[in-house]
Amino acid sequence: MADRNGSPSRRVSLRWASLCLVMVVLAAGCSTPFSAVTVNPLRPVSGPEWDPGEISRESQAVLDARGWGIEWRSRPAAAVVALNAAAEDPRVRRALVEIALAAAIDRQRQGDRLGECDGLYLCVAEQAAALKGAAPEADGRVADRASRFAVSRLVDRYGTALWDSRRPAPALWVGPLRRYQWVREPSTASEVGRMPWRRVVPVDRFEVQAGPRIEPVPGLGIACVGKVESPRGRLGHGDVTQLRDGSWLPLTVTVEFGPEAPLRSVSFRVHDRKKTESLEAEGTPRVLTGDFVTPFAVRTRELERQNFLSLGLLGFFQGDRFSEETGLYPLETPDPERIPVVFVHGLLSEPNTWRFLHAALLADPVIRQRYQFWAFQYPSSTPVQWSSTRLRQSLAQWQRRMDPEGTRTNLHRMVLVGHSMGGLLSRMQIVRGGGTLYRRYFNRPIDELSVAEPQRQMLRDMFFFEPNPHIGRVVFVCVPHRGSPMATDWPGRAARYLARLPVTALEITTDLVTFNRDALTLRGRISPGSSIDSLRPGSDTVHLLEELPMDPQVRVSSIIGCRAGCDDPEQSTDGVVPYWSSHLEGVPETVISSDHSAQNHPECAEQIRRLLHEHLGH
Questions:
Q1: How many CA atoms lie within 13 A of 229 on its CB side?
Q2: Is 260 helix (H, G, I), strand (E, B) or coil?
Q3: How large is the average pLDDT for residues 166-170?
Q4: Count of C-beta atoms within a 10 Å radius of residue 424
Q5: Confidence (pTM)
Q6: CB 173 within 8 A of CB 179
Q7: Which residue, 122, 126, 240, 606, has most beta carbons within 10 Å?
C-alpha cells in the first residue's frame, strides 16, 4: 500500500487543492463578467413594441378592410401582390411588410421545403426601404426592424456565401413580386470582403449576459460578428500583422438592390465595423450600424468551452507549454495610419480580460477612427525582467513589419495600457538598461559567457536596451510598483509552488549556473524564481525599477483602485495592491472606487477614454 503522507495521489490532491485556493484568491479580481448564449431569433417575443412575425392592429385593420382578414395566411404571396397595388399608402405598405415577414418566418420554422422564405425576406427588405422613406416615425421604426430581421435571416442561412464566390449559392431567388438575381461582383467587396472568414453570424443569434451597458450604434445595415480564419496557424508563429486565428470581429452587412425590374439584382457587402464608420447610400453618407460588445461575449463563450481553465491560468500553471504563444496580437485588422493602443495583462490573466475596456473604448467614434488595438500575451509565471524583454522584442518585430521605412507617424505615438504586473512590463519599455544593470548580475563581459548564441542575444536584450522611442504614453492600472503583500502571504507562496516557467528560461538559468558560475555576482547566483518573486515588496525587481528612471518624454498616468472607503486614499487598497505601492511621486493619478479589476470598471474606461482624447492633441 502506498504511503499515506507521500503517495503520488496525495501529492496530486494537495496540488489541486492549492491550485483551487490560489485561483479563488488571486484570480477573484481578474475576471471580466460578460459572456454570450445562443438564442433562436425565430422564437416569438412578447413586448411593448412590434415584433417580427407579429401583425399589428393597424395592419390587421388594413387587411380586414381589403378583404384579406386571416386569408392572407394561406395565400401570403397573393396578398402581397394585392396590397402592392395600393402601396403608395404607407399603411398598406406596412401591412405588406408585416405579412411578408410573418410568412417568411412561418415558412422557415416549418423547414421551408419549397424555398419560399428567401424571396419573402428579400421582398421585406426591398419594401421596408420604400416604407421608411414615406412613413411616419413609428412606421419607420417598424421598417427598420423588419429589414434588419429579414437580412439577418439571409446572413444566418447563407453566411459568407453571400459575398464569397468560392462558396456555393443559388443564382435566383423568387419573391411574390419579382425574382432576384444574386450578384457577387468584385466591386461590391469591401475592405474585408476577401477576408477568410470561418463564420459570419448576425448578433441577434446571441444574447449577451452581464455585459456592459453599451448600446449598439444605430445606422445602415445589420450588425454581425465574424470569426477570422487566419493562415497563421499556431498563435506564436506567422506574420505579426495578421489577425489571430479564431478572432471575432464586429462586422456590418449591407444589402443593395439594382434598378427595379422583373429580375432585380441584389448584392451583399460586408464591412469591418472598426475600420468603416459610414457608407455612401443614395448620395448621402450614412453611419453603419455596429455592435461592439457581442464579439467579445462570443469570444468569451468560445474560450470557456475550449478550456476548463482560462488561458491566463493555463499560462501561469503551464507556462512551459504556452511560452511559444508569447507575442503581440492585433485585436482588429492592422492599420498603419492609426495610433496603436497595446494592452498588457497581468498575473493569471490573458488578452481576453481586456474585453470590457476594449468594448467601452470602441463605443467612442473618435477612438474607433483614430486608434487600433493590440494585446500582448505571455505566460504570467515568468519573472518581470524576462516577460518585459519578450514584450520589447515583440514591439520591435511589430515595428519592423508595420513600418519598415519609419515613415508612419501615427505608429510612433503608441500607447501602452498595463494592468497589475502588466504595468511593470510596460514601465520597463520606457527605461534604460546598460552596463550598470548588467554588472549587478555578471562580472564578466557578455561575449565571454559560455552560452549558445540565441541565449546570449536574449541576455543582451534583457540588459542592454533604450527607452522605446515609439511609445508616447503609458497608462498604469492597479500596478504594484513596490510589490504586493499578497506575494509573500500564503496565496503567493502557494502560487510560487504551482508556477511553471518556460523551458527556454530554465535552460538559460541552468547554463549560467552550471557553466558560468564564476561569471555571476552573488545576486546573479540567486535563482530568478517566478513572477511571484518579482512581485514581492523589496524584491530585486522592485529595487531595479526604483533605480531606472522613466523616459521624461513619455506621458505617464496612473489609475488606482480603492476597494472601499476612499476618503483616505493613502490608506486604501484595491484588495491586491495597496495605494503606497501603486502611487508614483510626480505621476498624475486617478483613484476610482474599484477592486483590483479596475479594467472592468466604467470609471477606468472613462479615464482612459479621456487620456486617449488628450493624446490626440499632443
A1: 8
A2: coil
A3: 73
A4: 27
A5: 0.86
A6: yes
A7: 122
Give pLDDT tens digits for 291-316: 999 999 998 888 777 665 555 555 55
How far is the first Cα of the chain from the last one, in angstroms, to the nearest whole number?
72
**Across-strand partners of 473?**
415, 555
Count CA within 13 A, CB hemisphere, residue 432. 9
**343: CB partners within 8 A, 6+ apart:** 331, 351, 354, 357, 358, 373, 374, 375, 376, 417, 419, 422
Determine which helix (DSSP H) or strand (DSSP E) holds 307, and give its type and residue range. none
Q: Which three cell numbers stand for residue 463?
A: 540588459
pLDDT tens digits, one per residue of 133-154: 776 777 888 999 999 999 999 9
Instruction: Classify strands 197-202 and 35-38 as parallel, antiparallel or unpaired.
Output: unpaired
Which residues are within 8 A (CB) of 333 and not within 5 positions of it... i.e. 6 or more apart? 191, 192, 195, 243, 249, 272, 274, 275
Domain range list for the chain: 57-294, 322-401+409-616
Residue with cell 477606468: 604
**Of the candidates 290, 24, 258, 299, the residue with the CA atom closest to the CA atom of residue 129:** 258
- The distance of Cα 312 from the centroid of its chain, to the nearest Å, equals 15
Contacts of 329 (CB under 8 A, 6+ apart): 235, 240, 244, 351, 374, 375, 376, 377
Which residues, in sequence order, are CB contacts of 6 under 8 Å at separation 6+? none
C-alpha cell at 54: 407579429
Q: What are the angstrom distances between the C-alpha of 202 and each of 111, 152, 205, 270, 517? A: 20, 6, 6, 12, 61
**Beta bridge mates, 248:** 227
Nearest to 290 by CA among 353, 347, 352, 363: 363
Which residue, 582, 589, 460, 450, is CA-closest to 511? 450
Give the SS3 label for residue 197.
strand
Q: How many residues does the chain have?
A: 618
Could you tell me which CATH class the domain 322-401+409-616 is placed in?
A: alpha beta
Pairwise CA distance, residues 154 & 201, whole Å: 10
- Output the nine-digit C-alpha cell for 307: 478550456
Kindly state the percentage of the chain with pLDDT values over 70: 82
Alpha-carbon Rg of the chain, whole angstroms? 29
Q: What pLDDT does 501 receive?
A: 53
Q: How far apart are CA 248 and CA 322, in angstroms?
A: 22
